[in-house]
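Lecture notes, continued. The same structure-token format from the folding unit now serves as the input rather than the output. Read the line below as a description of shape only.
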């Protein structure tokens, strides 16, 4: 009887929620308008008359295919990559990741045995839950994805090592080494050493090292990225990591600057491949960013302003989940990045997300963080707290909690 009353009251809370006419969006990890405002000076930069780099090159014209040296130096410092091994490209790192995989399929990568399209059942390891757009790239190009679930919030190195050692069709692995999307996991030194040092059956195995959140700290601790290129070189596999990053969630997503880093051999390969594609990147946008940042400390200062805006939002999510879902669900406590990963009881995530949608709260579709959108446990929900206003965020998380509790009740 008690449980029937409980259910009735949840049904009632849900009916009230639906009647309240919410339209809230927790789907994508986008900066809020107040975060975007931090970078408004970019809109007036570089300004009339400012179009030369430090060496006097006229940036209004073609050329400079590697990108602006001064901007590469800033991000080299932030990413722990020598600036001559870091190229500054266009507006989106995803485009570089996509192109890397296209090039690997069509022409192959250094040290390989030919184009990956000739590898029977070519496959890439995908730690899950992971970033949906990484998976979309592979799915769209017909590359097989092998999910490798995190275990207790850590990479399952035993499974990864045994898969890559025995199967030459596995040519790569997605890695978000800092504040992973969506789990918030940051790889440890031991984990990175294992990844760069492990034996692989494929001669040209690559780590797609997407350091999208390298400077996106949510606490006062500001750990530096690990020197993955140096570690790979010392481990005897210098060509293994391909590093990606961008200013997407530093300045303006979609209107920022993306970076590619690698060993000298990989950088030379990328240069050669890119030269068939473009005469050079948008150096004026790079100059605008250079003027705005000034130096690496300028980027760190800006990121602290982002933190001041978004850390309270993450704290609100933590508080509400703690009040409403303790004992029912588990969630991550990220110290950086853009997401909270919510694990609800098996078999209830898609119902909870559908209930939320019907009550006007849009969430990333259940299963999105898995290859082929297949969450075998149907338990994963990604929360993106940055975009909504604080009031909207709290209303959306309260609503989500009611939907999770109702989904669990209905499943019993
Ligand atoms: N990588 C990860 C892990 C992301 O979460 C995102 C989304 N911000 C991106 C890449 C996209 O970056 P870009 O806008 O530079 O393509």
């Amino acid at each position: 009887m008690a449980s029937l009353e409980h259910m009735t009251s949840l049904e009632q809370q849900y009916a009230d929620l639906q009647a309240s006419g919410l339209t809230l969006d927790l789907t994508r990890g986008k900066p809020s308008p107040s975060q975007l405002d931090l970078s408004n000076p970019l809109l007036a930069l570089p300004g009339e008359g400012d179009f030369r780099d430090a060496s006097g090159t006229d940036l209004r014209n073609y050329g400079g295919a590697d990108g602006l040296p001064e901007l590469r130096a800033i991000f080299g410092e932030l990413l722990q990559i020598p600036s001559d091994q870091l190229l500054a490209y266009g507006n989106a790192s995803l485009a570089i990741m996509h192109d890397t995989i296209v090039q690997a399929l069509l022409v192959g990568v250094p040290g390989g045995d030919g184009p990956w399209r000739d590898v029977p059942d070519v496959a890439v390891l995908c730690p899950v839950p992971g970033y949906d757009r990484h998976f979309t790239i592979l799915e769209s190009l017909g590359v097989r994805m092998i999910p490798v679930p995190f275990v207790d919030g850590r990479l399952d190195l035993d499974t990864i090592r045994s898969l890559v050692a025995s199967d030459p069709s596995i040519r790569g692995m997605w890695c978000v080494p800092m504040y992973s999307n969506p789990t918030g996991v940051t790889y440890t030194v031991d984990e990175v050493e294992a990844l760069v040092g492990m034996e692989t059956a494929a001669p040209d195995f690559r780590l797609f090292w997407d350091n999208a959140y390298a400077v996106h700290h949510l606490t006062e601790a500001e750990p530096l990225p690990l020197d993955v290129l140096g570690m790979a070189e010392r481990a005897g596999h210098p060509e293994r990591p391909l590093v990606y990053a961008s200013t997407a969630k530093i300045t303006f997503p979609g209107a920022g600057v993306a970076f590619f880093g690698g060993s000298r051999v990989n950088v030379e390969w990328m240069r050669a491949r890119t030269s068939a594609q473009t005469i050079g990147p948008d150096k004026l946008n790079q100059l605008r960013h250079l003027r705005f940042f000034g130096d690496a400390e300028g980027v760190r200062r800006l990121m602290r302003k982002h933190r001041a805006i978004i850390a309270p939002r993450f704290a609100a999510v933590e508080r509400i989940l703690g009040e409403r879902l303790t004992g029912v669900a588990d969630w991550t406590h990220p110290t950086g990045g853009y997401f909270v990963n919510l694990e609800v009881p098996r078999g209830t995530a898609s119902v909870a997300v559908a209930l939320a949608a019907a009550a006007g709260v849009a969430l990333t579709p259940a299963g999105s963080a898995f290859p082929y959108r297949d969450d075998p446990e149907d338990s994963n929900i990604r929360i993106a707290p940055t975009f909504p206003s604080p009031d909207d965020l709290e209303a959306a998380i309260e609503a989500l909690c009611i939907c999770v509790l109702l989904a669990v009740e209905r499943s019993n």
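Point for the exam: The CA atoms of residues 28 and 384 lie 6 Å apart.
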